[in-house]
Amino acid sequence: MNIDLMTEKKITLEEVSTQIKQMLKRAIHDKKDPLNTMTLTTLGTEYPESRAVILRKFKEDTLICHSDRRTEKVQQIRNNPAISWHGWHPRRRVQLRLSGKAKAHVSGGLFEEEWARIQGSSRLNYSAITIPGTKVESAKEGWNNFGGIEDAQNHLISDAWKSHFCVIETEILKIDWLQLERGKNRRAIFHKVKGQWEGIWVVP
């Protein structure tokens, strides 16, 4: 059932849960969807740190994105797996906050499957010679660390970049849904308890 959250006045918690799943599944296949790019927050040594990531996969209760394994966010996940995703859908006026525990995969079946899906210029993101975040004298010097388009199309070269690749998998344990509508804002929170989802309405 396709629920329009802007017009449905008597939406139930079950319908909200269904709509959340529909929105995330759609975002994976549509690069123009607002939720295709979400904000990922990890816990740094001083502050929480947020950055935009591409939602690569939503399966059951997990979210997946890709990263260079040498980045700070991967090390932060290894130190503390608590993680949060944030998305905003302007047309639906829906905010999603999804929290849970993350794993950084640098080998195994999921890792191999996701690397195989990355082709061409997308592999350039993992071609940097120097560790991401390293100080350089100019923006040009930073980019010069990366390979070129021709290298990305040559699997003999781009396969070597696999050693920099990482899959971040988040097990979702909490979802905070907020839908804004003039004078009728609505908010629901879902928790995963012993493998089952429980939802409640809360004051927006």
What features would you describe in this structure?
By secondary structure, the protein is α+β, with helices and mostly antiparallel strands. It is 24% helix and 36% strand. The protein contains 6 helices and 9 strands; from the N terminus they run H-E-E-E-E-H-E-E-H-H-H-H-E-E-E. Strands 1, 2, 3, 4, 5, 6, 7, 8 and 9 form a 9-stranded antiparallel sheet that branches. Strand 5 and strand 6 form a beta hairpin. The longest helix is centred in the N-terminal third of the chain and has 17 residues. The radius of gyration is 19 Å and the shape is elongated. The two termini are 25 Å apart. The model has no long low-confidence stretch (mean pLDDT 94).
In short:
The protein is an alpha+beta fold.
Helices, strands, pairings?
Blueprint (H helix, E strand, L loop, with lengths): L12 H17 L7 E7 L4 E7 L2 E3 L2 E7 L3 H8 L2 E8 L4 E12 L3 H9 L21 H5 L5 H5 L1 H4 L6 E15 L6 E8 L2 E7 L2
Antiparallel strand pairs: 1-2, 1-5, 3-4, 4-7, 5-6, 6-7, 7-8, 8-9
Given the structure, what is the number of helices?
6
The largest β sheet comes out as: 9 strands, antiparallel
The helix/strand series, from N terminus to C terminus, equals HEEEEHEEHHHHEEE
Spans of at least 5 consecutive residues whose pLDDT stays below 50 are none
In whole angstroms, the N-to-C terminal distance is: 25 Å
Radius of gyration: 19 Å
Give the overall shape, derived from the CA principal axes: elongated
Q: Which structural class do the helices and strands define?
A: alpha+beta
Proportion of helical residues: 10-25%
The residue-averaged pLDDT reads 94
